[in-house]
Design a protein that fits this description.
The chain has 258 residues and is α/β, with parallel strands linked by helices. 33% of the residues lie in helices and 23% in strands. It contains 9 helices and 10 strands. The longest helix has 20 residues, at 116-135. It is globular. The chain starts with a strand and ends in a 15-residue tail after the last helix. Bound molecules: adenosine-5'-triphosphate and magnesium ion. Adenosine-5'-triphosphate binds at residues 11, 14, 16, 34, 36-42, 83.
Length: 258
Amino acid sequence: MLEARGVTVRFGGLVAVNALDLDVPDRGIFALVGPNGAGKTTLINALSRVCPVAGGTVRLGDVDVLSLPPHAAVSAGIARSFQRAELFPSLTVLENLLVGLHSTMQTGLSGALMTPASRTEEQAARARAERVLRDLDLWEVRNAAPADMPYGHQKLLDVARALVSEPALLLLDEPFAGLTEAEAPRLLACIRAAGERCAVLMIEHHFELLEGIAQRMTVMDFGQKVSEGTPASMRTDPEVIRCYLGTGRHRTAAASAC
Ligand SMILES: Nc1ncnc2c1ncn2[C@@H]1O[C@H](COP(=O)(O)OP(=O)(O)OP(=O)(O)O)[C@@H](O)[C@H]1O
Ligand SMILES: [Mg+2]
């Protein structure tokens, strides 16, 4: 269970996330929605230790997340994708998946020495990477350079990189934005499956899509929680209609493929 209390992020005089509380259960799909600039990405950045946090506490099970150094987030079970795919351009698709996995391996120094234990772990990691690439229909392009792939494939690869570490908490920042009609259903199936195994916290502007997969959602505006509940209850919530659903920003063409 992720338990965030009073999380606050400031950029100079701007309070991008303002004393926000959030509880995300161990399994299932939890959505974060709200208008542009509401602070959704900043909250995910805070939870994944990508940006400094001015106040509050975050616990994932027994782990005090805000005391982790940024590079330790993945080994603590927190993985994330980015609003704009963040990939290593000089590595292949497969290498992009494998590169982050060493930090999650148990064998440490012996990993560098290629002992039998580390070799077994390496093989398991490769098998996981292959499975994730096949699930997202990227196996055929495993040796391609990310820059040579269409944007939607790059987004899928960014999500694949987060999935392959088998996190306890999977943070996805608008994973469907930029996907084609052919790509979106593959991702939808992968996210559904991930929600059976771990906690998924997903930013998404496509409300109809969320009604199909999310159990709960938090609606943010100006860094604060406006409301929280099931997608059906949020659709009729007057505050949510005022700040978000009534503005027309909640729909994206790419994700309507789902
Ligand atoms: N690194 C930064 N430095 C200064 N201000 C920032 C920084 N990152 C975000 N902000 C500001 O913080 C606020 C929240 O931004 P954020 O990107 O979290 O919004 P968002 O809800 O993800 O919006 P969108 O739906 O457009 O992605 C905005 O006012 C934004 O301009
Ligand atoms: Mg954002």
